[in-house]
Every structure is written in structure tokens, then in C-alpha cells.
């Protein structure tokens, strides 16, 4: 059984960096035993250098692609040869080392339990049966979670993202009552008591602390951080929550641990079911994401009118659940649905399955398309966006090609770090132009907190995230677990990266819509006019279903979304300008 596991692992992941790192010590030990050979020292050095080269090269972006099936196992393409004599030698050394290590384990399947008693580990007896039951329970749990996620998705789609508003009604009434009670309590306690509740000026404290951190005044920064942390909380009001996460970022920046903190945040895995629940709730109370999804789906639905094939290239697909609604609409289309092909592009995840998230999205969408009777194929690509080329996507001229990016390009590196070559943003836009899509749906985070100077960036980020946390405070109950999930996994992650990281580690680099407009035009893209019917429908939906402070407007061909007058997100549609050449 152990041999089978080893063979399976080495077959699936022969060049994985973690495997190569694990193999290296065993290879060195075994080569050391051959010291009697006249070429032993030379052989050992060659072994070490070859392994180091392999480890450095396999860090390059990987491209994962399935075959002709709707969803299949991903295949990996590296920039180096996948099998060499040294790789085989290293693998053999590693597994031989494992065999030698077995000599130190108890024989006759005897294990020692926590009480110091010997216990027979009989795979043919009760233990095997117990493990079998455990594995079945795990499998059933995974299936149940997947089914529950599908049901949530069905409900989200059938109600056009409005189904959760009924369940949220009581919570929103509770929030309103809590706010009214708090205001009445302040009035009753008088002006003096009211002043006490407003004594902590987080904006001033955060600015002063950021200035101290920026000038390396550790004493002042530490003192200010203590004051901020004493009064802030991830479960308090909007100001306290923002101060809590911003203080985390400042503390990590001062300690030089920004990268570790950010990677610990992105390493927190949230289940698909929990994500769908959170998005479900978010769209019931906040218009930003819902407007973006409806805008994208209606634009694509109109683009494929009268055509039989549709190909969507989605940068940053993640769970992919937004396409379920489009699949449902296409299934009900007069004349029958078109053939739908989705190419989902996501950055590789760390670990043994870099394409796991995209593949799960593909299986989920394939199952839903089959249920709706829509011919469907899914192509998973786990790679950096700038590593994807138009020729990799097998574009069919008979297809209506649509490129979609909802807020994903904010993390592409800009020209501030790429003086000697074309920056990744322009590389991706050039690739999209070469695809010649019928429409490119571009949704952006309208932020100005990507300046090179830290204090300028910090102030702009404060204004932006203050608006976001105010949205959550106004539309969500404070003790709602899904609100905490959204704030921690989305807002805090972005804020911490912007504050605590520099150089290539700082991936949050949003631009405002005017800057993106100029960049897209330089890349040879031509802006398309907004559909007036879609714009009118979205304005009515926001006005009738959401808080009065949500705003939706149009400027220079962009659909703008904001809160209390501040523009936070923007959407536009583009196509390739055939009269323009490459950048």
C-alpha cells in the first residue's frame, strides 16, 4: 500500500518544488556514502547544483490545461525538461531513504499508543473497517457540501440574486433598531457622555502612526499603535474595524513582517459554501457586486444573440458561480442555447494542486449546465495572467469571443517595477487585443492608493476603505458572521497588503477609471458605448432595492458605482481597434 502511495505521488508530481526539496537531504546522504569513489566529491557537487537549478526553474509560472473533455485533469507545462537522469536519481534516493527509515519503526504492525501500550495495527481487521467508515464519512461530507453549495447557487440564480433579501429583512430591522437605540441613548446621557463616545479620533491617530512608521520613529509608532489597538476591534463599529486592520498593517510594516502577514491572510481557506453564502448576503444588501454581474451577463447575452457558439475567457474566475445565471438565461433562449465554452484563468494556488479552485468551479458549472441542457466545456488555466497567450486558448473564429475581468487586474504589476520591459498590465491588454474579442467587459476598483510614496498611498487608502466599512456598517448587522468574513478575507487582505508590503510583494495596485481608459486605448482597444437599456435597468434596480446612499452614474462611457458621492467601482466595454498596432 505504501509503495502504491509513493508511486502515485511521484507519477503525479515528479517535479514539484516541495518534493524536490524533500529529496535533496536524502540525495546528499546517499552520495556521501560513496566517498570511496575517486569522483565522489565531483558527483556530489553536480547533484547539488542540478537540484538547485531545478528548484529555481520550477518556480516559473505554470500553464494548466485540460484536454477535450468538458472538465478534465490539468496538465502542466514547465519551461524545463520534465525528466532528467538527475531527477530520477534524486527520486530513487528519496524513496530509498524512506525504506531505510522504516527500519526504525516497530515491526509486525505494532504501534505504541499514548498510554505506552503496544497496539496491533491490523489492516485486515477492525482498524481497516474503521478507516473505511471514516473515509466514507469524509466523502459523504464533501458531497453534501458540494450539493448544498449547488442548492445555494440555484437559489441565487432563480431569484436573480434577490432571494436572500427576505431572510435579511429581520436582521436589517434589528440593525436599524440598534442604531436608533444607540442614538437615543447618546441623547439621553447628554453632551458630556456623547463626547466620551467620540473621544478616539482614529483618522488622526492612524495618520500620525503612519508618519511615525514611515520616518522609522519606532517609539512614537509603538505608543500610537497601543492607543489604536486599545480602542479598535474587528467586531466594533466601522471606524473601530478599519482602525483594527490598518493597525495590523502598520505593525507588520514596522516589524518587517508584512509579507508573512499577507500570506497568512491569503492562506486562510474559506469553503465554497461559505463564500457563496457570504456573496449571497452581500448582494442582498450591497449593490456593487450585483450590478457588475448583471452588467456583465446582460452584455454577453446581447453579444451572442443569433449565434450558436460562445467562448468566455474569464480572468480571475475564482468560484465561477456568476456564470450559472447566464447559463440559465441561455438555456431559456428562444431557438435553443448556444454551445458555451469557458476558459477560466486564475493564479496558481500554493500546494500540490495549483488549479484546484478553477477545476472545482469547472465541475460545478458543468454539472449545472448539464442540468439546464446547455452544451458546455470548461478549460482551466492556472497561470499568471501575463503568462497566458492568445494562441494557448484555441480560439475558434466561429465563436462569439468575450473577455471578462471583474476587478482582477488591480493586482497586475505596473510600470513602476518594470522599467526594462513591458509591464504585465500592458502585456495582458495586448493579449486581449490579439484575441480580437467581440466585447471585453472590464470592471475596475476605482482606487488611487497605488502611489510609490507611502503616506500618499496611505491617505488615499483610508478614504477608500472608510467608505467600504461605512457601507458594511450601514447595511449589515454588526454581529453578522458573514460580515466578518467579507471584511477579513476581502477588505482587510487588500488593506494589509497595501500598507505592509513593498516592491513585488505589494500586489494591490488599483487605478482610477480615467487612467485605465488611457491605458486601454494605448493598448489598441476601442471603447464601446454603454447599452442605455442595461444602464436604465440597473439605475432602477439600485434606486428601488438598495440604500439611498448607493449611487450609479455614467461618465466617459464608464458605468460608475459609489457610496455617498465617492466613486468606488467602474465598468466599461471594449473591443479591439483594428486600426491600432501593438504597444
Topology:
Layout: H1 2-12, H2 17-32, H3 40-57, E1 63-65, E2 75-77, H4 85-102, E3 110-112, E4 118-120, H5 126-158, H6 165-197, H7 202-214, H8 218-231, H9 238-255, H10 258-266, H11 272-285, H12 287-303, E5 309-315, H13 322-331, E6 339-346, H14 356-372, E7 376-382, E8 400-406, H15 424-435, E9 439-445, H16 454-475, H17 481-500, H18 513-522, E10 525-528, H19 532-545, E11 550-555, E12 558-563, E13 566-576
Parallel strand pairs: 5-6, 5-8, 6-7, 8-9
Antiparallel strand pairs: 1-2, 3-4, 9-13, 10-13, 11-12, 12-13
**CATH C-level category of the domain at 272-447 and 510-576:** Alpha Beta
Total number of helices: 19
The CATH topology of the domain at 272-447 and 510-576 comes to: Rossmann fold
Radius of gyration: 27 Å
Give the CA-based shape. Answer: globular
Low-confidence stretches: 1-14, 30-131, 192-198
Please identify the structural class as seen in this structure.
Answer: alpha/beta
Proportion of helical residues:
40-55%
Strand percentage lies at: 5-15%
CATH superfamily of the domain at 272-447 and 510-576: Vaccinia Virus protein VP39
Number of strands: 13
Amino acid at each position: 500500500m505504501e509503495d502504491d502511495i509513493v508511486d502515485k505521488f511521484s507519477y503525479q508530481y515528479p517535479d514539484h518544488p516541495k518534493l524536490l526539496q524533500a529529496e535533496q537531504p536524502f540525495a546528499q546522504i546517499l552520495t556521501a556514502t560513496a566517498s570511496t569513489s575517486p569522483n565522489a566529491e565531483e558527483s556530489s557537487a553536480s547533484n547539488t547544483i542540478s537540484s538547485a537549478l531545478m528548484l529555481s526553474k520550477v518556480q516559473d509560472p505554470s500553464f494548466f490545461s485540460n484536454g477535450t473533455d468538458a472538465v478534465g485533469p490539468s496538465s502542466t507545462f514547465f519551461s524545463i525538461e520534465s525528466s532528467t537522469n538527475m531527477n530520477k536519481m534524486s527520486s530513487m534516493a528519496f524513496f530509498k531513504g524512506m525504506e531505510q527509515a522504516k527500519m526504525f519503526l516497530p515491526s509486525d504492525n505494532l504501534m505504541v499508543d499514548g498510554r505506552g501500550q503496544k497496539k496491533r495495527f491490523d489492516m485486515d481487521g477492525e482498524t481497516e473497517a474503521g478507516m473505511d467508515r471514516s473515509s466514507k464519512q469524509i466523502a459523504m461530507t464533501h458531497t453534501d457540501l458540494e450539493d448544498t453549495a449547488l442548492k445555494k447557487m440555484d437559489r441565487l440564480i432563480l431569484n436573480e440574486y434577490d432571494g436572500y433579501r427576505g431572510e435579511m429583512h429581520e436582521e436589517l430591522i434589528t440593525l436599524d433598531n440598534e442604531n436608533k437605540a444607540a442614538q437615543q441613548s447618546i441623547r439621553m446621557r447628554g453632551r458630556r457622555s456623547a463626547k466620551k463616545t467620540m473621544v478616539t479620533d482614529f483618522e488622526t491617530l492612524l495618520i500620525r502612526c503612519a508618519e511615525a512608521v514611515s520616518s522609522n520613529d519606532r517609539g512614537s509608532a509603538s505608543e500610537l499603535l497601543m492607543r489604536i489597538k486599545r480602542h479598535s476591534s474587528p467586531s466594533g463599529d466601522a471606524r473601530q474595524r478599519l482602525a483594527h486592520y490598518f493597525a495590523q498593517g502598520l505593525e507588520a510594516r514596522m516589524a518587517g513582517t508584512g509579507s508573512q502577514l499577507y500570506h497568512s491572510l491569503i492562506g486562510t481557506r474559506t469553503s465554497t459554501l461559505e463564500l457563496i453564502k457570504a456573496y449571497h448576503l452581500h448582494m442582498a444588501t450591497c449593490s456593487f457586486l450585483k450590478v457588475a454581474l448583471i452588467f456583465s451577463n446582460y452584455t454577453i447575452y446581447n453579444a451572442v444573440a443569433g449565434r450558436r457558439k460562445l467562448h468566455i475567457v474569464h480572468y480571475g474566475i475564482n468560484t465561477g458561480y456568476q456564470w450559472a445565471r447566464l447559463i440559465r438565461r441561455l438555456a431559456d433562449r428562444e431557438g435553443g442555447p448556444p454551445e458555451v465554452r469557458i476558459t477560466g484563468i486564475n493564479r496558481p494556488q500554493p500546494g500540490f494542486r495549483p488549479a484546484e479552485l478553477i477545476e472545482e468551479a469547472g465541475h460545478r458549472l458543468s454539472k449545472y449546465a448539464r442540468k439546464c441542457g446547455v452544451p458546455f466545456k470548461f478549460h482551466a488555466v492556472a497561470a499568471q495572467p501575463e503568462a497566458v497567450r492568445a494562441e494557448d486558448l484555441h480560439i475558434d473564429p466561429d465563436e462569439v469571443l468575450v473577455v471578462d475581468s471583474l476587478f482582477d487586474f488591480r493586482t497586475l504589476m505596473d510600470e513602476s517595477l518594470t522599467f526594462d520591459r513591458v509591464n504585465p498590465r500592458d502585456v495582458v491588454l495586448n493579449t486581449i487585443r490579439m484575441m480580437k474579442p467581440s466585447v471585453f467587459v472590464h470592471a475596475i476598483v476605482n482606487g488611487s492608493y497605488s502611489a510609490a510614496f507611502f503616506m500618499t498611498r496611505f491617505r488615499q487608502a483610508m478614504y477608500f476603505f472608510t467608505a467600504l466599512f461605512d457601507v458594511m456598517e450601514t447595511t449589515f448587522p454588526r454581529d453578522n458572521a458573514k460580515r466578518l468574513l467579507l471584511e477579513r478575507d476581502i477588505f482587510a487582505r487588500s488593506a494589509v497588503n497595501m500598507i505592509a508590503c513593498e516592491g513585488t510583494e505589494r500586489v494591490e495596485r488599483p487605478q482610477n477609471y480615467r487612467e485605465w481608459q488611457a491605458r486601454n486605448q494605448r493598448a489598441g482597444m476601442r471603447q464601446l458605448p454603454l447599452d442605455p437599456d442595461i444602464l436604465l435597468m440597473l439605475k432602477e434596480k439600485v434606486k428601488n432595492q438598495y440604500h439611498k446612499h448607493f449611487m450609479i452614474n455614467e461618465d466617459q462611457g464608464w458605468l460608475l458605482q459609489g457610496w455617498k458621492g465617492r466613486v468606488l467601482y467602474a465598468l466599461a466595454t471594449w473591443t479591439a481597434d483594428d486600426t491600432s498596432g501593438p504597444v
